Amino acid sequence: MEMKQISETTLKITISMEDLADRGMELKDFLLPQEKTEEFFYSVMDELDLPDNFKNSGMLSFRVTPRKDRIDVFVTKSEIDKDLNFDDLAEFGDVSQMSPEEFFKTLEKTMQSKGDTQAHEKLEQLEQMMEEALEGEATREPEALDGPETDYVHYVFFFPKLEDAISFSKAVDFETEASELYKEQDGYYMTVLLDIKDQPSYYANLMYARLLEHASQSKKTRAYLQEHGVQLIVDDAISRLQLIKMG
Fold first, then answer.
1. What share of the chain has pLDDT > 70, as a percent?
2. Is the domain of 134 the same as that of 20?
3. Is 160 in contact with 193 (CB distance < 8 Å)?
4. How does the annotation summarize its subunit structure (predicted)?
5. DSSP label of 246
6. Among 45, 77, 109, residue at a domain's last position
7. Which of 13, 42, 133, 243 would staple 73 via disulfide (CB 3.0–4.6 Å)?
8. pLDDT at 109
9. Arithmetic mean of pLDDT, 187-192
10. Distance from C-alpha of 82 to C-alpha of 162, rounded to nearest angstrom
């Protein structure tokens, strides 16, 4: 069993299938929330030497990603801002009183009722661009990375509208380690963390180029957004936004 802290609010715990079996757990146990699963999560947490900011941190959320020979458990410390107050979210009602699940249900309902034709057109364009990118990838000249080797690489992207962030998420068809969504005065920002361990040296630049086909480069850093922005989605923003139906 192995633990890595991939952000200030997220831990990644890797558990082998053998460790899982030793604890009397199977993959099917994670399909539906149940007391057995919750007890398993917290027993694992008790065994690990948690970072100080995760000890007695209150509500934690768990996300399980099955792999071929293991499961990855992402543990996220809840830090939902209670003072959301944006003009473009006004029609959602009192979002400060919403749970994350209620926020997404309201967002989905609002977008469906709008029937935003521009969003549909944007999504079609993004899908076409992704197909063209995949077709042309074989002839793309990769750029080598500079600096020391690392297991992870981190990007920040900008979106003028929330719909753009949703369309971006729907266009991402490869695995990401973590992603967050922030709101700032001029728009929305998404951070994306990729695991580049055991990948070729040009992999990080290649993935960045692919992602930029569906987003704009951010002039603001994650550290700036953590201090000045409002974090709308703490972890797994891409997967959660992919669930939103537009129109």
1. 65
2. no
3. no
4. Homodimer.
5. -
6. 77
7. 13
8. 55
9. 94
10. 19
